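Service request form, structural biology core

Requester: graduate student, group of Dr. S.
Request type: structure prediction, single chain
Budget code: on file
Notes: please return the result as structure tokens.

Sequence provided:
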Amino acid sequence: MDGSITNMKRLLMIFFDETVAAHLTKDMCSYPYHLGKNHHWSCTYAYFGKEPLHNAAFEEYCSLEHLGDTEKYTDKKKIAANYLTLHAQNYDFLMFSHYGGASYSLARLAKKLNPKIKVYNKMDLGERGLAHFYDGTFLRRLKVIPEYWKSAAIDLFTVENRSFYETLKNMRLFRNRIEYLPNPVSLFGVDLAEIKAPKERENIILTVGRPGDPVKNTELFVEAVQKVDRSKFDDWKFYIVGEPEAHFRAYVEKITQGDPWVAQRLVLCGRVSDRRELYELYARSKIMCMTSRSESFCIAVSEAMYFGAYPILTNFGGIVHELTDGGRCGTIVPQEDASALAAAWERTAERAELPALSREIRQLARSTFDYDLWTAKLDEYLMRLK
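Core staff response, request fulfilled:
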């Protein structure tokens, strides 16, 4: 056998949430894919979903292994354990997304089956997750004690938020086994050179998510549309991208039926599954707005910034300060305050330097949220474990 093949680093990623085709561009798939593409790893993405996925371009660098379509978490754990029992000896690294639960128990199992295997957990940690480990109180220090033995089989954690990393790295629980690793922007299946970007951006304020989901709080976006100074936004459009839940669609219809001005400017775009179309929409828009109540990272913001849209964000967590470079490249507004959000839109729309700022934002995002850069760091982190 070719020595270059036998010496390949072998990684198995097991993901427990339902996987659909869109996941191939998200972090849980993108990091294994780029390890294979850029660093000659042999990677497998093992997943649960209603049907097997097939994508030749992706599978050139990362194999896809369908584990079944069960929705029960206990069944998923059993299936994953059986898969590990059969295959743990074939891998050097085991990767999970999200901390706790099955990732801890399966890490212990993997090390019993293959004592040489190293286990990596990409934590996907939000504000509530951080509070699980640290809130500055003595009581929390006591409550976190069981995590020492529960997580003992995890060799490496990473978090997407730099401020979380700075906090957690000083905890004894994570000392010498945690690193910073953000979620970059995926260009899988997209030719950046073919993305159409107008010379002048259109008067569009855009939000992307799951309209009707309480976490996304898209109702606040609609409330802000109602509150803006209409004389300043007469030639603007407000786009909501994402498949709306029925109650949200009814909510918008009720508002637009009674308000012709909003009806002419508020656009429910539905789901945009074509990434080229979505990226071109970012490139056309002047402002990207997220009204979330909580986010661990919010990839939609970094994607929009990658194409130069100016971010206006509710204060949904520490990550907003990182995304906006401390407010230098974006605006942060309080939660649940439609008037403050509308005022931020008004101030931004009137900024004469917005085109130059858009270019600066694009440059910042492309130098910060780059998979080639961060996959090289992940390769470095993992190889330190060997």
